[in-house]
Amino acid sequence: MASPVCAQSTPAPAPTESSYAALLRHLNPALSFTRARSYARSVMADAWRTHLDPRFIMSIVTVESRWRANATSRVGARGLGQLMPQTAALLGVNAWNPAENLRGTSSYLRALLDHFHGKPNAVKLAIAGYNAGPKAVERYHGIPPYAETQDYVVRVLHVWKELNGRVGRAFAPAPTAAVRPAARLPDERQWLSNVNEVLPTTAAAVETTPNPALTPAADTTASTSPIK
Fold it and tell me: Which residue has the higher pLDDT, 181 or 59?
């Protein structure tokens, strides 16, 4: 089982980028090999920069947009990681630029993990914060009681688990000076094994229904969750 935070410093072997690109094309067959390779390269670079498991970043983007760079939500969230305009501005990225969007997405995930570090189920809280906003998580002292957010957390966890089984971690880098390192998060087994216990209704539905995020995309319109 993986943690979203990487701990070693071995660079990725060359075939890994191709493996990630192939997986992205499975998730969205409309992607050209060149575009998929570019996205994979960006994810790996951002994972190195933010000290995150690249598959964790990929799980968020898969649920958010199914790797459609032109995805727009009903409230105006944009691009691969569905960044709201104000969030993208704060992060200093152009949400319509795929590489910048992925950079903003990974930076925001890193910030959320740091923000909730030390709290029980910190990874779940960070995922919920990406969907509903960190203030909502703090207001409810946990995952907000929104059906959309509870479903979102479980979907991301299950996509991440699926990605772990399909492609390797790639590398486990040390964080760069530009990103504040966080103490190691709880081992994935601690929270992933308790998904059904923490969110029983939503988790049961996920267990009995094929994961739509891992089904190849069939169109170019995304209905995704905003970042608030």
Answer: 59
| 113-129 burial code (b ≥16 CB/10 A, e <16) | bbbbbeeebbbbbbbbb
186 - beta bridge partners? Answer: none
| 64 domain residue, yes or no | yes
Element (H, E) at 163: helix 147-166
Tell me the backbone φ, ψ of residue 83, rounded to 5 degrees: -80, 135
Question: Within 13 Å and on the Cβ side, how many CA atoms surround 180?
Answer: 9
Query: According to the model, what pLDDT value does residue 165 have?
Result: 86
66-108 pLDDT, tens digit per residue, is: 999 999 999 999 999 999 999 999 999 999 999 999 999 999 9
- What integer is the mean pLDDT of 31-43? 97
pTM score: 0.74
Question: What's the confidence (pLDDT) of residue 207?
Answer: 43
The tokens for 187 are 């081992």
Domain assignment present for residue 145? The answer is yes
Q: Which tokens is 126 given?
A: 């960070």
Active site residues: 64
The CATH number of residue 69's host domain is 1.10.530.10
3-class secondary-structure state, position 120: coil
State how far the alpha carbon of 89 is from the alpha carbons of 78, 85, 96, in Å.
12, 6, 12
Q: In sequence order, which residues have a C-beta less than 8 Å from that of residue 131 and are 6 or more positions away?
A: 148, 149, 152, 153, 225, 226, 227
